[in-house]
Write a structure and sequence with these properties.
This protein is an alpha/beta fold. The chain is built from 17 helices and 13 strands. 46% of the residues lie in helices and 18% in strands.
Length: 389
């Protein structure tokens, strides 16, 4: 069973240290140090264990936070983290109700062992409300075609009768609106600022609506994903997934940040977006290896090769072996069809349903519409052929 742990600490390094140590057990989400925010995250994530950083300067407020958490959630386990050589800090944390105290510099194996023992004794919490699927498309480089792919993936899911939201955070910003010749006054930044009142009424009245019924939440140039707190983003994703059967997020080109990693960690499906160029592959491999070393969750990742030319090396099978991940799809270049779709504001499904690009995108839709762990027949055949090659 995978766990979600919360870390309320003023030191950003604490979250990274805990995530590296606890990667085998689940993910660590950095939270703010306010009681309301922590309780909201506990409600959304179902977390049963919270780490609270404690230091000399803020001891009183931090101990009050521990007491408030335990008063509101008596079954919660709180572990304090700080300078273990400061006996006063240890005593204060334990008096406030912390179950244990972890010192900075503790070896990863010791952290993992302590938390594993605590999680084995955690109470069984009631199941959380079922949420819609979360699919993420990510690649290191900004790419307008990534927005085209994400938009058609979301559109295809909507056309299957499943309420779908496209959150376009890819760079350059706002490309999905240009693609569908749409306008909106409500953006991703607005959704974060209106987090407390984000309900079905606000979604119905404010979110951009495509004629198919698909909703679009774009990022504007002034909105910066890196400026979002992981806690706020987690709450927003939880709220959106309760309102839609599918949430598709385009993150291509976004610089590395806690917020980006939060999206990646929570994706049920992650498509790693690349093309065949050596420079693109090298940059993406560097990022992939960095994240693997940091304990970022990449269990659901599949490779998506765009503008694929079969006659040019490296081929799709070689790329899949190099990235050590299954190939989801290789999308043909079809430059004329892509340009027509952009200029006319129509989907490739409308313009040329039998084109190789349209068929490949439909295959991606089928793969994404299946439950996690399931594979559509066409995709399974593709993988078997890849192995035979």
């Amino acid at each position: 069973m995978e766990h979600t742990f919360l870390a309320a600490s003023q030191r950003a390094a604490d979250t990274e240290w805990l995530q590296e140590a606890l990667a085998p057990l689940g993910q660590v989400l950095r939270a703010g140090d306010t009681l309301d925010e922590l309780l909201g995250l506990i409600e959304v994530t179902g977390a049963s264990l919270v780490f609270v950083g404690i230091d000399r300067e803020h001891t009183v407020a931090q101990c009050a936070l521990i007491e408030g958490l335990l008063e509101a959630r008596p079954m919660l386990v709180v572990v304090a983290i700080g300078d273990g050589f400061d006996n006063q800090l240890v005593i204060s944390a334990m008096r406030a109700g912390a179950r244990d105290f972890m010192s900075y510099g503790l070896r990863s194996s010791e952290v993992l062992g302590l938390v594993r023992r605590l999680t084995q004794r955690l109470p069984q919490l009631p199941a959380r409300r079922e949420q819609g699927g979360l699919t993420v498309i990510y690649g290191v480089q900004p790419d307008v075609d990534a927005s085209l792919v994400a938009s058609h993936l979301a559109l295809g899911l909507q056309q299957r009768g499943q309420a779908t939201l496209l959150v376009d955070l890819g760079l350059p910003a706002g490309e999905s609106l240009e693609l569908f010749k749409s306008e909106t006054s409500f953006t991703f930044g607005d959704a974060l600022r209106n987090l407390r009142r984000l309900d079905s009424n606000l979604i119905e009245s404010a979110f951009c609506r495509h004629p198919s019924g698909m909703r679009i939440l774009p990022q504007m140039p002034e909105d910066r994903l890196a400026d979002c707190s992981s806690a706020e983003l987690y709450l927003l994703l939880g709220s959106l997934r309760q309102s839609f059967a599918h949430v598709v997020i385009n993150l291509c080109g976004q610089p590395d940040s806690d917020a980006l990693r939060t999206c990646i960690n929570n994706a049920q499906r992650l498509y790693w977006y690349i093309d065949q160029s050596v420079s693109n592959c090298r940059r993406n491999l560097d990022c992939l290896q960095l994240w693997q070393g940091k304990g970022i969750k990449l269990d659901s990742v599949q490779l998506l090769v765009d503008r694929y030319i079969p006659q040019v090396a490296p081929d799709a099978a070689t790329l899949a072996r190099t990235f050590e991940m299954p190939l989801a799809v290789a999308l043909p270049a079809s430059p004329t069809l892509r340009l027509r779709a952009r200029n006319q504001g129509q989907s490739v499904f409308e313009l040329a349903a039998r084109d190789a690009l349209s068929r490949a995108l439909q295959q991606l839709v089928e793969n994404s519409g299946a439950k996690p762990g399931e594979v559509s027949g066409g995709n399974l055949l593709q993988r078997l052929l890849g192995r035979l090659k």
